[in-house]
Amino acid sequence: MSNSSSVSQFLLLAFADRRELQLLHFWLFLAISLAALLANSLILSAVACDHHLHTPMGFFLLNLSLTDLGCICTTVPKAMHNSLWGTRTISYQGCAAQVFLLIFFFRTEFYLLTVMCYDRYVAICKPLHYGTLLGSRACAHMAAAAWATGFLNALLHTANTFSLPLCQGNALEQFFCEIPHILKLSCSHSGYLREIGLLMVSACLVVGCFIFIVFSYVQIFRAVLRIPSQQGRHKAFSMCLPHLAVVSLFVSTVVFSYLKPPSLSSPSLDLVASVLYSVVPPALNPFIYSLRNQQIKDALRKMMTG
User: Fold this and answer.
1) Domain span including residue 197
2) What CATH number corresponds to the domain at position 67?
């Protein structure tokens, strides 16, 4: 193929060749997506309806649930469709939309997790300044900055990637459209280097956020250990552990997928790794928060009992 204009569709990686396994993957993804949709919808409803959750953390948790819903709805429906009908294709426009939405929601989620870490830091290390530093206007600005930065990242990467000429076929080694696999099909050296440069800038931004999260939690745990009462320490840990668990799950799955040694690479392991970072975190995040947060559990109980 001489250029990208001759590519009307891409071929995604199939989960299995046997019909029975394809149907198994369909039902598994259906169960995961329904659980994620239900859990995140409950979190959204609880935060919106219960005035006890009209706090900065509740506001950020609502935004996080929106990104989780976006992540699940970007990759899983197409994978379910292909498994059910035994196909592998995705249109060129659909692939571009998938790349844009996936980067948008994942980058926004990580920036929101960074902002939520700042919320926990202020709540525990600077409680007297909490109302000043995290007022409603400041929270709205931080959330808007996270969404805007994610949107700008997604726009730049998608526009550059899909402007590259493609001459290495149209088969992607992934069950959804992802930039590294599309770059393998490119025959433009300058465009490839431009996208690598954008990825490096994005990586530096992500690393900076991660360093901020680590530094904040070092300060948080130092402050928690100085709390004299056991009840106070327990309350502080219960505030931080759900967020720390979500950050750890998000970062560990992405790091394992992208930085695993080549000796561990295989088609089946790569497929499992991609599911781990693209599907599992958005599905588990609401369960982690609802199981550890007493206010959310109380709000959900009120909703269930009318």
Assistant:
1) 9-305
2) 1.20.1070.10
For residues 158 and 81, give the distance between their C-alpha atoms in angstroms, rounded to a whole number: 24
pTM value is: 0.88
Place of tokens 């989960």: 15
Q: What are the structure tokens assigned to 276, written together?
A: 């781990």
Coil vs helix vs strand at 268: helix
Residue 142 lies in a domain: yes
Helices (H) and strands (E) in the chain, counts: 11, 2
Let me know if residue 293 belongs to a domain. Answer: yes
What total of structural domains would you count in the chain? 1
Q: Is residue 2 part of a domain?
A: no
Report how far Cα 20 is from the mean position of its chain's Cα atoms.
30
Per-residue confidence in pLDDT tens, the chain, 306 aa? 344 446 788 988 887 778 888 899 899 999 999 999 998 998 898 888 888 888 898 899 999 999 999 999 999 999 899 888 888 899 999 999 999 999 999 999 999 999 999 998 998 888 888 888 898 999 999 999 999 999 999 999 999 899 888 887 888 888 899 888 888 888 877 777 888 888 888 888 888 898 999 899 889 888 888 888 787 777 777 778 887 888 888 788 777 776 666 666 666 777 777 888 888 888 888 888 776 677 787 887 887 786
What six digits make up the tokens of 137? 């206007």
